[in-house]
Structures are given as structure tokens and as C-alpha cells.
Design a protein that fits this description.
The chain has three helices and four strands; from the N terminus they run E-H-E-H-E-H-E. With 98 residues, it is α/β, with parallel strands linked by helices. Strands 3-2-1-4 form a four-stranded parallel β-sheet. The protein is globular and about 40 Å long.
């Protein structure tokens, strides 16, 4: 697995399905891993992730102080050893091309 995609979420039930489904259309030579770092969602964001992308690794930091860079670092700590490239997304960001 050469590519790891880290997605930051918090109450993104409106967008997370679009984001995850767009990843299925990407043209990569290798498989990629998806790491979701959730900042305390109280909606059904995580249920949608589990439904659409059950292999996603979900990180639930207990940190109550949200800082974007810090939460990205939580995701980076979980990246596969074989990763060569990391893609950072917010859940409301939807790639529009393959």
C-alpha cells in the first residue's frame, strides 16, 4: 500500500458518503488505505463510514481541543509503514475527477 488517505471529520454526515464514494473512482495503480480521524461527531458520520468503507481505520482522539494540524498528526501516526504518499482531506472535500 503506497498511498494513505487521511480524512478529518466532525459531524460530516452530509458529505462523508460523497467523499468516500469519490475515492472508489480514483485511478491508482496500487491499493490505498483510508484513515478517518474524527473530532467527536455526534451525528451518524462514523456509521456512514462503516457502511460505505468498512476497511477504513477510524481514529477517535480523546483530545477535546481541536486543532487541525494536531488531528492530522493523529492520522499520520497510523499510516502504514509502506506508505509513500499521504493525501489529506476534510470530509466535506469531494474529489471531482479520477
Amino acid at each position: 500500500m503506497k498511498i494513505s488517505i487521511i480524512i478529518r471529520t466532525k459531524n460530516e454526515s452530509k458529505w462523508i458518503a460523497y467523499c468516500l464514494k469519490s475515492l472508489e473512482t480514483q485511478e491508482f495503480e496500487d491499493k490505498f488505505e483510508v484513515i478517518v480521524v474524527d473530532s467527536g461527531s455526534t451525528d451518524n458520520t462514523l456509521e456512514i463510514v462503516n457502511l460505505i468503507y468498512p476497511s477504513a481505520k477510524i481514529i477517535l482522539p480523546s483530545d477535546s481541543v481541536y486543532l487541525p494540524g494536531k488531528f492530522i498528526n493523529y492520522g499520520l501516526a497510523e499510516v502504514s509503514e509502506k506508505t509513500e504518499y499521504v493525501i489529506l482531506l476534510s470530509a466535506h472535500c469531494v474529489p471531482t475527477s479520477s
